[in-house]
Amino acid sequence: MAAAKIKKGDQVIVLSGKDKGRTGEVVQAMPREGKVIVEGINVHARHRKPSQENPQGGIDRNPAPMDISNVAHVTKDGKATRVRFEERDGKKVRVAVKTGEVING
Asked: Which of 63, 64, 62, 81 shows the shortest CA–CA distance to 72?
């Protein structure tokens, strides 16, 4: 299994779908499934009937997982970039392809 190029806490931009062009922070990464959950992106509404726990009922809005191939890492200038791994100072680090800067993580 390959190492995860996008991790929790990364700023990403959506490349396709209804939220194309929007940016957000990765809340959860699921590398085995190849999916990520991005805050405020791909939000799905679920209508809930009133119950004992929630007597009011209403609409729950939660971000749903999206495929990791539909997001890309964002550079400081707000553009999408691919991520590669390099060895620097004896450590394996993630590097933005466009700018060459090391991605913290």
From this structure: 81
pLDDT (tens place) for every residue of the chain, 105 residues total = 466 899 999 999 999 999 999 999 999 999 999 999 999 999 999 999 999 999 999 999 999 999 999 999 999 888 999 999 999 899 999 999 999 999 886
Question: Per DSSP, what are the bridge partners of residue 30?
Answer: 35
DSSP 82: -
Q: How many CB atoms lie within 10 A of CB 75?
A: 17
φ, ψ of residue 98 to 5 degrees: the values are -65, -45
Name residue 103's amino acid. I
**E strands present in the chain:** 11-14, 23-30, 35-38, 43-48, 58-63, 66-67, 71-74, 80-81, 83-88, 91-96, 102-103
